[in-house]
Amino acid sequence: MSPTRGTAASIAPPPPTPHRPRGGRFGALADWAQRHRWAALLLWVAVLAAVTLGSGAAGSAYKNDFSLPGTDSQAATDLFKEHGSAQAGDSVEIVLKDSQGIDGRKAAVERMLAEVKGLAGVADVRSPYTEASAVSKDGTIGYATVTLDGKAEAVPKEDVTAIIDTAKGVEADGLQVELGGDAVRGAEDKGSPTAELAGILAAVIILGLLFGSVVAAAVPLITALFAVGAAVGLIVLASHVFTIADFTPPITMLVGLGVGVDYALLIFYRFRHELTDGVEPAEAGRKALDAAGRTVFFAGCTVIIALLGLVALGLGSLQGVALALALTVLTTMAASLVLLPALLALFGRRIQRHVLKHAARSTAKGKVEGRRWRALAAAVQRRPLPALLVAVLALLALSAPALSMRLGFADAGNDPRTTTSRQAYDLLAEGFGPGFNGPLIVLVQGDEAAGQGVRSELAKAEGVATASPAMPSEDGALSTVFIYPKSAPQDEGTTDLVHHLRDDVAPRLERDTGAEILVGGSVAASQDFADTVAQRLPLFVAVVVGMSSLLLMLVFRSVWIPVKAALLNLLSISAALGAMTLVFQYGWFGVQQGPIEAFLPVLIFAIVFGLSMDYEVFLVSRIHEEWERTKDHSLAVREGLATTGKVITAAGAIMIVVFGAFMLSPDRMLQQFGLGLAVAILVDVLVIRCLIVPAVLQLLGKRAWWLPAPLARRLPKVALESPRES
């Protein structure tokens, strides 16, 4: 994109210097796609149809894998299975409430429980009428425990739905029946795809406002929709080969939509500028792909590298999500580089007429594109240090709450109040105390006497409300004790209790009894997951930042550019995590308080770090192009922002509204994910790219492009963006 001509003298761009035309592989790819436009379009239609039909026929095989080898909770689960304990599987609670007392409903409830016991996926059923501890003190609330034959994520949803329907069938006047447990939460209806539809609508509106033409707005959106459709089908097929979590589809759809529109927009905007300079549509398409296509390819590679960096964490549940998102980004890149040029060839003449008409009106009114961005850059350059300090201090203040971020997992207490899982949660807390919804399962590897002795000591531990009798396994080698905390599952007190039992109580009891003791259960497993993420996060950050910085060094042949990019990307991510902490952990804006989902910080880091590199590459490559052409550093910064500010802002706005659409989801995890991504992109586009980057580059001056001579000789030269042809 060339600088716009005709601005005020103080910030005017230089006259163009003629360049000898040169092409590249991306230009050649665009040339092929334009000459064979119908073949390219039919190819994408065939790919979309094939993967859609194939995925529909194969069906999905999503599976949540939260296993953590080497942790106490996983060791407990493995021992449960090895010794035939009924607690090897997760459980479903059937909660009953009758203000007149549940004893009067015994006959009907027992018949229902007998039916449930015969259903698929059920290993055992314990009636509230055989255990006094399963009925509240006033006799109005009780619960039956349905032990499943596997972990919640492994039990088919239709089996869980059958349990829900059978239990609900006994409801009558005065008797309320609700069901709780992870399996029930997973089987409940998640609602309509409001977020996806809102994201698409927002993208259409922003593109329409940006280009003022239905056809021009439709081209980037069509490209993104083709890419997302193909990616979703491929992910469904991949779920039969890889472990991909069931919460992956909505994430990939919205990320794919945002990234797809983003990439197509960057190329399309360059195409539009070439048309404004009087280039014919076919040649404009080739030039746009030869220049901006390189940027899109490099930016996409950085996103994929960041996502695949999740493999370094060694967490199975995140590896599948990373693979799905990387596949989505790869598909959007392919659509931008092949499908988009074909669409430009089909609609090029119509777009050209609109662009030239709009340019003529702007010229008649004396408007110069990029004038305001050029003025903003000049203002920052006049006082770079104050602009830098104010922006950085503001972001550090927003980042500060992230230092107290508490990782964990949402439970039924965060579900909508209309769901049966939330109502069961509330009834159990009402009848038995807040800690009843998150029991710790303590495994005692020893005889029954050892189990009873451990149970009596655990019941005395600080923070424990009560402890169940020790239950022996089928072979008698293990005993299981349920520990009910005084605090709710998500409370910090429960987290402290897990660590207290493991670090202080269990070692002492092991010395006294000679039995091996493990603290497990879903609450302990959540804490293990959070602790594992925190321990491995430095390695993950080092891998992602290191590889991305190396790529930037290759492209821009500079030491300070990748250092600046890494630090600023980390700043935008920390600001996003701080905003998430304020809203979801501290309950700002009336949001229910609770921990931040344990895997979200690393997932947001991978996505945002990659996407921030998109804007970094797009902006700095234009600045670098002007620097190479004029060797005037201040002018290069102004022209880089002037020619990219509008498109970066538009692309960022699309990302923000698409990711912000997650806030419309009833799922707390998706709400956190959407807020984190939206805040990160908002900060990156408005604060970092518009204020901090121009200020830093102005302060660095020519040193911004410094590369030690020995390193310069050894590094291969990578051309990112071709100079404009005039």
Automatic annotation (TrEMBL):
Its main location: membrane. It is found in: Cell membrane. This is RND superfamily putative drug exporter. Keywords: Cell membrane, Membrane, Transmembrane, Transmembrane helix. It is a multi-pass membrane protein. It comes from Streptomyces umbrinus. PROSITE patterns: SSD. Residues 1-25 are annotated as: Disordered. Residues 217-346 form the SSD domain. The chain crosses the membrane at residues 41-62, 197-218, 225-245, 251-269, 296-315, 321-347, 384-403, 537-556, 568-586, 598-620, 641-663, 675-697. Belongs to the resistance-nodulation-cell division (RND) (TC 2.A.6) family. MmpL subfamily.
